[in-house]
Amino acid sequence: MQQQFARFLRAGAMASVVAAVLGTSFTLATSSSHAQSKTQLLVYTALETDAMKLYKDGFEKANPNIEIRWVRDSTGVVTAKLLAEKNNPQADVVVGLAATSLALLGQEGMLLPYEPKGMKELNPAYVDSARPPNWVGMDVWGATVCFNTIEAKKLNLPTPTSWQDLAKPIYKGQIVMPHPASSGTGYLDVTAWLQMFGETNGWKYMDALHQNIAQYTHSGSKPCTMAGTGEFPIGISFEFRGHQVKRSGAPIELIFPKEGLGWDIEASGIMKGTKNLEAAKKLVDWMASKDANQISSNWWAIVAYPGIAKKVEGIPDNYEKLLITQNDFNWSAKNRERILAEWSTRYNAKAEKK
Questions:
Q1: Which of 142, 137, 70, 69 minimizes the C-alpha distance to 101?
Q2: Which of 247, 274, 303, 304 has its CA 20 to 30 A from that of 32?
Q3: Is the pLDDT of residue 47 over 60?
Q4: Alpha helices, DSSP H only, in 94-252?
Q5: Total domain count for the chain?
Q6: One GO molecular function term (predicted)?
């Protein structure tokens, strides 16, 4: 009897194990099937990491059958990667890349023109002028100088008010700025100076400024962060990072040079040849939506959807009027290779080591 009971227990245990294994296999198969039922979009981006999760969560909540897979790097690196992949594109969509970079991709025939739903609600100044457009803007970012008041006082440095001030000998070795080949912020600075001052005087200005530069960083955020910690008293950066560094308690003043501010647009576009076209369109539709623009307004003083932007501490109310008007994205895109080659020949010796 005891032997029969033992055999019964062993048989029961084996049945439980089998049932558990079968149950687990069924669960895994169901989970795998569910995952496979989602369309995965490979999205190249230069978005600040602070923002990526909110955009992903918002889009996937509205589109539960689509999943974003980000590939993130700085603007210059993402642009170079896309151009290198021209004959074998990998990305489905580009989100949060500079409009100057997207204009270049458009000139290379790499973007699929598309007018997203709701585009007519957006400020046309922040949308590609072609119809249908190659890219649609999300928000504007512009140049800002982060000035550490404590470190400047120690060094007896006056507060600059203009770009020309920063070229004065008193600031020798005290300034950091982004490398234009790596950083979209660096490139918008360079192209703004060339357009504001004219090419001849623009290069003369950068020659003088170069004497005062300690380092060209590969990040648009880093110069302001370095100014905030006091590593250098002056960092040429952009307003979003300046606002964040100031809000963290760093002793910096945000300066908006009186000649005008270079600027660019974070924008989205569909890569030509994507195998997930309908899902790609849905992502670009959503990036143009009021919901997406409300997310953008958490950081940016200017967004593409009118009436959504909020007051950002430290950013002047007339900020939009400070942006230079002579800002031709197509010119900046068309001349990118030439401008970067000339810039590197003149100034690359002070580039941050990678």
A1: 137
A2: 274
A3: yes
A4: 99-107, 149-154, 163-166, 184-197, 199-210, 222-229, 239-247
A5: 1
A6: thiamine pyrophosphate binding
Q: Please check whether residue 341 lies inside any domain of the structure.
A: yes
Average pLDDT, the chain: 91
Q: Assess contact for 293 and 304: CB atoms under 8 A.
A: yes
Mean pLDDT of 20-48: 63
Cα–Cα dist 305/96, whole Å: 15
Q: Which of 146, 154, 150 is nearest to 251 (CA)?
A: 150
Taking every pair of Cα atoms in the chain, the longest distance, rounded to a whole number of angstroms, is 104
Please report whether residue 222 resides in a domain. Answer: yes
Kind plus residue range of the DSSP H or E element containing 30: helix 2-37
Indicate the pLDDT class of residue 21, thresholds 50, 70 and 90: very low
Rounded to whole angstroms, the Cα distance separating 59 from 81 reads 25
39-45 and 66-72: which strand pairing?
A: parallel
Residue 234, beta-bridge partner list: 147, 175
Query: 205 is in which domain, residue-wise?
Result: 141-262+334-350
The fraction of the chain above a pLDDT of 90, given in percent, is 86
Strand pairing of 263-271 and 136-148? antiparallel
Cis bond before residue 132 (omega within 30° of 0): yes
What secondary structure does DSSP assign to 305-331, as a single string? STT-----TTS-TTHHHHB-S---HHH
Give residues with Cβ within 8 angstroms of 246, minimum separation 6: 146, 228, 252, 254, 313, 314
Quick check: is 99 in a domain?
A: no
79-88, 170-179, 249-258, 311-320: segment of lowest average pLDDT: 311-320
CATH number of the domain enclosing 189: 3.40.190.10
> Is residue 108, in this structure, part of any structural domain at all?
no
pLDDT score for 17: 36
